[in-house]
Write a structure and sequence with these properties.
This protein has 20 helices and six strands. It is mainly alpha-helical and 481 residues long. The longest helix is centred in the last third of the chain and has 31 residues.
Length: 481
């Protein structure tokens, strides 16, 4: 049964945010994707009263197939989707609603009421019934930065289409693609179920390709066609562009419906699979920054990063300190990793239920890390200004910064071991951690000298970073004195 009060809350929120988003100046074409990303940040500020702008440098998108609490250890701030699946849980993201509200109130997450499937056209009815309605109402009433994706992205992409010289709307392009691809999508589903298609090539972040998502991704990319590399949409030499693959996929789907031929069905299914995989990658590279992270960092899994890197165009750096390879590696390590534990190092069982105490421990660690890292940020800024045009960058000074970085990193790692998993493991299943062999000697030294619990052996720490283990050893040793 639909809760009309909650439905009104959501509809009013959509209308208000869409109106605010429309008030952004879309008159001049920014001509580049970076310019569009800036517009996305402007739009997000209209929805969040400028708090997004204040924190945009540390914002990144949540990776849906990974544990939210774990990912908060590797990213300062996350934009997080409130899907119908999550909202329908007793505890969305497997954490108490009170903890979710607390994380949002403290500015660690921005919550997006996900209506990727055009829920607004149905009055958001599926979000306004049952447990989803109950949770959504609490979130809207108690959180500061709740937004609705379609309310914000609609004016951005419609402006992009206008700049492209297309007299169309993003909704119309998506609906047309949805209709034209429907036959090949049906073939894809049948061949997937028959085992004729590689399942690993048919899944994105734990979910099989769906027609709604692919048609939206295609529409997003089409709206910024002139702002991405020409060879992506158009045929280039021997390479077939997105548009030709789209037309081929539509053709095979329609042919199969006419002929009912099994070989044509397989061609249609494979064509959709190939098209969808490529569309997903290009969406991640170019337009996900607008729809998921709003002009800020869009986070990839390792496999996605490898695939995206393979396809991405190379970027030429200016001839100054920022082109120094070591400097680039160091700055990237600090600003991208945020001195956090990468999600692949701590593999969380998605079924783990986190207590308020564990979430409070994460918040405590994030506050401590933030305070300690500010000094390093200042040093980086000072060094960039000092050596901005100096080709003979002093590597010894870089080593000093790297040492300070390692000290903070080590404290953070040990804090996670001690305050989060060692402490919280009493009430959490051991499957929260995936184990690997780091070598008996490394952990023998830690365990014998500091009596760390047996469960620490199950912590997945990057095996290549032996230096980190030594720094943990030194940090603990100094703290014991």
């Amino acid at each position: 049964m639909i809760d009309r009060a909650v439905e009104k809350q959501v509809v009013d929120l959509w209308k208000n945010q869409n109106k605010n988003a429309m008030s952004v100046d879309f008159y001049d074409d920014p001509r580049t994707l970076q310019g569009v990303y800036s517009k996305a940040i402007d739009v997000m500020n209209r929805a969040t009263s400028n708090t997004f702008k204040l924190k945009k440098d540390g914002v990144g998108s949540w990776i849906s197939e990974q544990s939210l609490p774990i990912q908060l250890l590797s990213q300062d701030i996350l934009t997080v989707d409130l899907s119908i699946e999550e909202l329908s849980k007793q505890k969305p993201f497997n954490i108490p609603i009170r903890s979710l509200v607390k994380l949002e109130n403290m500015g660690y997450i921005y919550l997006n009421i996900r209506d990727y499937d055009s829920e607004k056209n149905k009055g958001f009815s599926s979000l306004c019934a049952g447990k989803a309605s109950e949770n959504l109402s609490k979130i809207i009433e108690n959180c500061k930065n709740v937004y609705i994706g379609s309310a914000l992205r609609e004016p951005i992409f419609n402006a992009c289409l206008k700049w492209e010289g297309l007299n169309d709307t993003i909704d119309k392009i998506q609906l047309n693609a949805f209709d034209e691809l429907s036959n090949s999508f049906k073939a894809f589903n049948e061949e997937f179920d028959n085992g004729k298609l590689d399942k690993t090539e048919s899944i994105f972040r734990g979910e099989k390709f769906n027609l709604t998502g692919i048609s939206w991704n295609y529409a997003f990319l089409k709206s910024v066609r002139s702002k991405i590399d020409d060879y992506i949409f158009d045929d280039y030499g021997d390479r077939i562009g997105i548009q030709s693959k789209y037309e081929k996929t539509v053709h095979y789907g329609n042919e199969w419906i006419k002929t009912k031929d099994a070989s044509t069905r397989l061609k249609a299914g494979k064509s959709f699979q190939e098209f969808a995989g490529e569309i997903k990658t290009y969406h991640q590279l170019y337009t996900a920054n607008i729809t998921a992270s709003w002009g800020t960092a869009y986070n990839f899994t390792d496999n996605e990063y490898i695939e995206a890197t393979r396809k991405a165009a190379s970027i030429k750096l200016k001839n100054d300190i920022r082109s120094n390879a070591n400097w680039q590696k160091f700055v990237s390590m600090i600003y991208s990793d945020q001195i956090g534990i990468k999600s692949e190092y701590l593999i969380s069982d998605k079924n783990i239920i986190y207590s308020e105490g564990i979430i409070d421990s994460i918040i405590e660690l994030k506050i401590k890390k933030y305070n300690e890292i500010n000094a390093i940020y200042k040093l980086i800024s000072d060094y960039e200004k000092k050596y901005i045009n100096d080709e003979n960058f002093i590597s010894a000074d870089l080593e000093k910064l790297y040492t300070q970085y390692n000290v903070v990193k080590s404290k953070f790692y040990y804090g996670v071991l001690e305050k989060l998993f060692v402490k919280g493991i009493k009430t959490s299943p051991l499957s929260i951690i995936k184990s690997i062999d780091l070598g008996v000697g490394d952990f023998w030294d830690l365990n014998v000298n500091f009596n760390l619990p047996e469960v620490v052996k199950r912590i997945l720490i990057p095996s290549k970073d032996k230096r980190m283990l030594f720094n943990i050893y030194q940090t603990i040793k100094n703290e014991k004195k």
